[in-house]
Amino acid sequence: MSDTVLVLNSGSSSIKFGLFDISAAEPILLCKGLLDEHEAKPRLVVKSPAGEDLFATRKEAPDADGGHLFAEVLAFIEERFGTHSLRAAGHRIVHGGPDYSGPVALTDEVTAKLAALTPLAPLHQPRSLAPVRALAAIRPELTQIACFDTAFHHGLAPPARRFAIPRRYEQRGVRRCGFHGLSFEYVAGRLAEIAPELVAKRSVIAHLGNGASLCALRHGRSVDTTMALTPLDGLVMGTRCGTIDPGVLLYLQQHEKMSVEQVQHLLYHESGLLGVSGISADMRTLLASGEVGAREAVDLFTFRAAQQVAMMATTLGGLDCLVFTGGIGEHAKEIRSAICERLGWLGVHIDAAANDAARERINSGGSAVDVFAIPTDEEMTIARHCAALIRERHVT
Prior knowledge:
By secondary structure, this protein is an alpha/beta fold. It contains 15 helices and 13 strands.
């Protein structure tokens, strides 16, 4: 009987999941799906690794505990893959705080500690933990494992992680944590497979999506990143502001008389591409629009991205490799082109045909910097971590 792990990756409006066979050295995807409980009629779609439809259902209304579609997922797995033994459920948890630098089995105590980090990721942490609670109610005996987006950046050196505020706050955990670590870890691994000669060199990975951040790497390790204590900092995002003068926040509270809750909602839900364009948070909509606001939002997005790639290059002492990933990074050729054009002074030049075709390597022959577009796979990273934890610690 083969062992399997159910991986759940909670996003802002849906949960991606995958069932992986972990009996071999490398996890094998058995099926993948989308669980969306934010529509009027919540839906569940399951597909084969090749994209063929295996199962789909909708519910008229969500249950109070939000767990009904998780029960459907488990029922489908048991019916379709009954010869496999489900060993654990692995979760992407956005914030691990200072205590968690690697995957950990979830207990009530651990879950409570992670819930206490909600103020540092109010948009994400509750959504990360909701599936944990729902599965615990349905299948209390099932081992659940947390894998953290912050863990990849745990080793940042003091200049990269420290804020210029009194040290007593740093001692309480107020420091640059970084996010998108599961994505960066996967892409760094793929880059090592594609171009092993670049592993020791100076690389920047640009995870560009509704949430977006950069990571500077050397020897496959994070040495700097654009997100900080919370997922608000750094690049312009779908509805999040990115880097902003702290004085703006003081102004909003002192002179616009906004409450802390109103400022938080503004920064997380009304800013970024949506706020600048006044049209949409979706890059595809903005690229297709002829509106001035849409063009200005896209321009700001690429300006800030290029600016902060240069910042990462400063940390690295140069730039040898630039990798695009994430929904926008993988699919928006116009964005890749605009960012690279702004970085021409750093020796970044792309081949237009390769970029248009979204090939894996897109730099031109005369580029001083290797440029790639590599699809990410956070679910695979989580599956690998879960398999390793189960084997090494004999989690049952």
